[in-house]
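Appendix B.2, paired examples.
Example (i):
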Amino acid sequence: MAKRLARGGRRDEVPSRSILTRAVDSVFDFVRLAEFEILFVFFFVVAYVIFKDLTSRPEYNEILVKKPDWWPY
């Protein structure tokens, strides 16, 4: 992925990139590679937070916990 820059002198020389630039490039490469998996996990995290918020309210929690009168167990 290194781009060749012509700055005079030899054309086949690739200027050395800083550690920060290489780190940022590797993070972007990873995000491009694992984009679907990141979105997949993010979807489940958001769904969990929404479900947890809904079930933490007492009026919604009664629907999930309260058993009907005819339930034998």
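Example (ii):
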Amino acid sequence: MANTLEIDQASVVDNDIQKQIEFSGEFDGDEYEFAVKYAVLKELSGDEPEDDGIELFNRFNDDIVDACLAAIERKPNASTIIVDEDDLE
């Protein structure tokens, strides 16, 4: 059985100052802090996130989880895993 990222939905916040969605998640028994850049949401949706960052985050959840897993692989020891367009397949 493949491990998956479990997002703590209660921790999801839209940080429009930093232009990212921030949240906590658990993967393989470890807790991580994530920041998904608006550029990822724009790449997935084709639209610039405005007041709908969390809505876009939820709509593209599966793609974002995959990107988060790629980011963990690239930066496993970062205090906050920054997820950007390079993490999309």
